[in-house]
């Protein structure tokens, strides 16, 4: 971990975090932090994947190695916010929302204890077991998405739940479930409640590198900071992958986004709801003690927590696709639906 006094840059971000809470009235309970490309950059190596290709074909083994670099200053920024929240007697815990999976967060926190420290107290086993990351009330992952939306494949329950929400929120969730229910990158705080997690009740600002995510968050009546970033694609297609030498590529990516995020959060203070800020900070940060990690991800974990949840959602919605939409919100496309054979009368 990089201590707040370990570099001038880290120290500066720590103070920025304190000022956001003390003078800017930003509250950690209202911020929702994405993980990949916000808290850290990560890459796979094409030449290593190619060596494992035979294994993948023979045994369908999805295991692989990931190389991570923590974004400079980002954890110091949140630590400063935590420190000032304690000064004011406020809830001092960060909220983390990722389309990733609990095992991976546990594995990262195992090497980076500050992550669990920032998230605050958790369920039994916290932070030593992957299961405790799955159950933590201030962490939302792909497995939570599946838990929230699989029951909503039932059109009656879906209509009932959506009817209780503010119209813009119901519209965003309803549209997504109707057109692409398996899209687990949908980040809307009401989903957390349905997954049994109460850490996102005051969520107001999403900080995320995915423009689709931030746009939907804003359409649902909240605010967002879109972090512009350029993770490399191998041959322009394979995401988060370089052929070799991940450390050089990560060093190029590792720019001063934390400063830009702090600035955006300060400016959000006097904006109307529904505001969307886009931030970029391409200059690399020098004289900073970077934190680099390597993760060997086992096949069983990716299948259980990344492949299967999405498959469960897809299967549940496919099974109910023949049901009529009791809310009458089906889109009039003017085309014969692909599942017309299974349509039932009401
Ligand atoms: Mg991301």
Description:
The chain is α/β, with parallel strands linked by helices and 346 residues long. Helix content is 43%, strand content 13%. The chain has 15 helices and 12 strands. A 6-stranded parallel sheet has the order 5-4-1-6-7-11, with helices on both faces. Strands 10-2-3-12 form a 4-stranded mixed sheet. Strand 6 (205-208), helix 12 and strand 7 (223-227) form a beta-alpha-beta unit. Helix 8 runs parallel beside helix 15 (299-319). Residues 324-334 and 336-346 have low confidence and may be disordered. Residues 34, 36-38, 208-210 line the site of magnesium ion.
Report the helical percentage: 40-55%
Number of strands: 12
Class based on secondary structure composition and strand pairing: alpha/beta
Total domains? 1
Give the percentage of residues in beta strands: 5-15%
Spatial strand sequence of the major β-sheet: 5-4-1-6-7-11
Largest sheet report: 6 strands, parallel
Task: Give a topology summary.
Blueprint: H1 8-22, E1 31-33, E2 40-45, H2 46-51, H3 53-59, E3 64-70, H4 74-87, E4 95-97, H5 102-111, H6 113-119, H7 130-135, E5 139-140, H8 142-149, H9 155-163, H10 167-179, H11 190-194, E6 205-208, H12 211-219, E7 223-227, E8 233-234, E9 238-239, E10 241-242, H13 246-253, H14 257-268, E11 276-279, E12 292-297, H15 299-319
Parallel strand pairs: 1-4, 1-6, 2-10, 4-5, 6-7, 7-11
Antiparallel strand pairs: 2-3, 3-12, 8-9
Residues 34, 36-38, 208-210 line the site of magnesium ion (MG).
């Amino acid at each position: 971990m990089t201590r707040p006094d370990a570099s001038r840059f880290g120290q500066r971000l720590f103070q920025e975090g304190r000022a956001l809470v003390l003078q800017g009235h930003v509250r950690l309970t209202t911020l929702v932090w994405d993980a990949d490309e916000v808290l850290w950059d990560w890459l796979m190596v094409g030449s290593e994947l190619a060596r494992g290709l035979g294994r993948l074909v023979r045994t369908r083994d999805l295991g692989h190695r990931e190389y991570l670099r923590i974004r400079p200053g980002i954890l110091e920024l949140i630590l400063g916010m935590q420190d000032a929240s304690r000064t004011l007697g406020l809830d001092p815990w960060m909220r983390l929302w990722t389309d990733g999976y609990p095992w991976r967060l546990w594995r990262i926190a195992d090497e980076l204890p500050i992550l669990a420290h920032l998230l605050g107290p958790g369920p039994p086993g916290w932070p030593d077991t992957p299961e405790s990351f799955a159950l933590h009330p201030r962490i939302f992952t792909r497995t939570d998405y599946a838990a929230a939306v699989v029951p909503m494949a039932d059109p009656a329950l879906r209509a009932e739940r959506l009817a209780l929400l503010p119209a813009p929120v119901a519209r965003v969730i309803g549209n997504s479930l109707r057109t692409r229910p398996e899209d687990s990158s949908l980040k809307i705080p009401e989903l957390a409640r349905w997954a049994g997690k109460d850490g996102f009740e005051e969520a107001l600002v999403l900080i995320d590198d995915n423009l689709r995510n931030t746009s939907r968050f804003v359409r649902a009546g909240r605010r967002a900071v879109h972090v512009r970033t350029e993770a490399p694609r191998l041959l322009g297609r394979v995401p988060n992958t370089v052929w070799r030498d991940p450390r050089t590529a990560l060093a190029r990516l590792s720019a001063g986004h934390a400063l830009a995020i702090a600035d955006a959060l300060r400016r959000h203070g006097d904006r109307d709801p529904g505001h969307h800020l886009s931030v970029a900070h391409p200059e690399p940060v020098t004289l900073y003690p970077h934190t680099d990690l390597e993760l060997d991800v086992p096949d069983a974990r990716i299948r259980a927590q990344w492949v299967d949840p999405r498959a469960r959602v897809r299967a549940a919605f496919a099974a109910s696709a023949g049901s009529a939409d009791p809310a009458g919100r089906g889109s009039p496309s003017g085309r014969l639906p692909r599942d017309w054979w299974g349509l039932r009368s009401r």
